[in-house]
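Treating backbone geometry as a discrete language has practical consequences that deserve illustration. Part of our work consisted of pairing the sequence of a single chain with a tokenised description of its backbone. We regard such an encoding as a compact summary of how the chain folds. The amino acid sequence and the backbone structure tokens for this protein are reproduced below.
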Amino acid sequence: MSIAILGGTGPQGRGLALRFARAGRPVVIGSRESERAQTTAGELNSMLSGAAQISGDDIRGAVAAAGEMVILAVPYSAHNATLESVRDLLEGKILIDIVVPLADGDPKKVDMPAAGSATEAAQALLGDEIPVVGALHNVSATTLNHLDQRINCDVLVCGNDLAAKEKVIELIRLLEVEAYNAGPAVNARCIEAITPILIRLNISKKVPFTHAGIRIWAPSA
């Protein structure tokens, strides 16, 4: 079944499209302009061989073409408006919200909405009948787009619907990363807030690496 990625022409959306297509899942990327989405899809397909197909459409067309999973990867400024525009098409689907509410003009800080997090804001907007799962907040877009590199972090998954979370965890594991159930949607407040910390570390001249991620480590033997 196809995965829809709304905001699929941006860095995170492009990287996820490449990774999922390479893992064998067809992808349709959605943009406000269908022509732009189709052009991006062609560029991405040219980077892959023996992979599932990536196609492009406008936002509503992408959601309509999705099987069960719809990934929201738009800038936070477009978060609510995008959801409102497709709410009537999301029945029977799972929304995977990867958006982080970074402060305007300063990505080293979060600016959480009144709901507490982007994930909670999405759930409140869509209603309880459409499960929202927060995931993939802390994965570097640069790493996602370098297919010769393994994704260097684990993924924390949160949401109020256990069955939906388990399906999302199974999907994310197609990317050869570990994903963990991190609890209800309210925990997205903590998970989303990790991203600006990683951004701060990654741009620090005192840290000898970039594009860092987080891992959940087992105790030493």
The first strand starts at residue 3 and ends at 6. The radius of gyration is 16 Å. DSSP finds eight helices and ten strands in the chain. The chain has a mean pLDDT of 94.
